[in-house]
Amino acid sequence: AAPTLPALPSSLDAELRGAVAVLTLDRPAKRNALSDEMIGGIEAFFLGLPASVAAVVIAAAGDHFSAGLDLSEMSERSTFDGMVHSRMWHRVFELVESGPVPVVAALKGAVVGGGLELAAAAHIRVAERSTFYALPEGQRGIFVGGGAAVRVPRLMGTARMIDLILTGRRLDAEEGAAAGLSQYVVDDGTGREEALALAERIAQNAPQTNYAVVQALPRIAEANPREGYLMEAMMAAITQGTDDAKARMQAFLDGRAAKVTDR
Ligand code: 1HE
């Protein structure tokens, strides 16, 4: 049977484009503010990815990637509910970061608060020039709760994150790229296509290499070097032992594979 994606709430849209699945935040009237419904839908999307999917793009409808947590859902929440809510976001964004395949986020406009937390869980961020980043939690009287305290310092360093949250200031696309928040800056209106092109290229990599990059590399980078080197050696051995790797290396030696200079 043809692969299908799970049913999603109307605030999200999903599309299969060959080996790439595109998830679109589709609540532009509310600047893609992340409601509980959307967080649940993101979870359903990642849990229901067909095995034929080798890479994911997260894009957004409208002018903004995401204005972060849906503040209209917050006022009724008790302290304990807040704890459970934050852990729900952690669970879902962990699926983004450590799911089966690489994820490319196409950013534009506001990438703010929880929107930056979602973006930070992706593996590659492509930012249109319109992108601006901010952590307005200081003005709202709250703290980050979707993993930013762990993931954002990894990208930009703790001091830069402290500056963002204490001052509430914005970084534009170029400043964000220089600080480590995105790996690419592209023209307005092209982010989704650029992210798709990257995802299509990623989908052509050997699955065992993509798996090692998503599952092992972040752990190795944070492990003690002694354990890190051992994990690296195990992943090197596992990947190179596959028939797929042997065939790809032979193809290069026979002059049938792309050279680095062809890319
Ligand atoms: C929202 C939200 C939201 C917009 N929750 N409804 N995030 C923030 O503090 C960011 C708050 N948002 C903004 O600063 C601005 O909306 C934007 C800069 C993103 C966009 O500005 P603009 O002028 O294009 O749109 P707008 O007129 O402000 O918003 C359009 C509508 O979206 C409006 O609703 P409407 O019914 O009056 O049309 C807004 O109320 C609504 N809207 N953002 C709910 N965030 C797990 S912890 C994570 C912690 C956080 O994420 S804190 C950061 C929250």
Automatic annotation (TrEMBL):
Protein's organism: Nocardioides acrostichi
TM region positions: none
Alphabetical list of NCBIfam families matching this protein: PRK08150.1 (NF006013)
Keywords: Lyase
Swiss-Prot/TrEMBL catalytic activity: a 4-saturated-(3S)-3-hydroxyacyl-CoA = a (3E)-enoyl-CoA + H2O; a (3S)-3-hydroxyacyl-CoA = a (2E)-enoyl-CoA + H2O
A molecular-function term among this protein's GO annotations: enoyl-CoA hydratase activity
Pfam families the record matches: ECH_1
A Gene Ontology BP annotation from the UniProt entry: fatty acid beta-oxidation
Family that this chain belongs to: Belongs to the enoyl-CoA hydratase/isomerase family.
Protein name per the record: Crotonase/enoyl-CoA hydratase family protein
CDD domains attached to this UniProt entry: crotonase-like (cd06558)
InterPro entries, A to Z: ClpP/crotonase-like_dom_sf, Enoyl-CoA_hydra/iso, Enoyl-CoA_hydra_C
Keyword Iron annotated: no
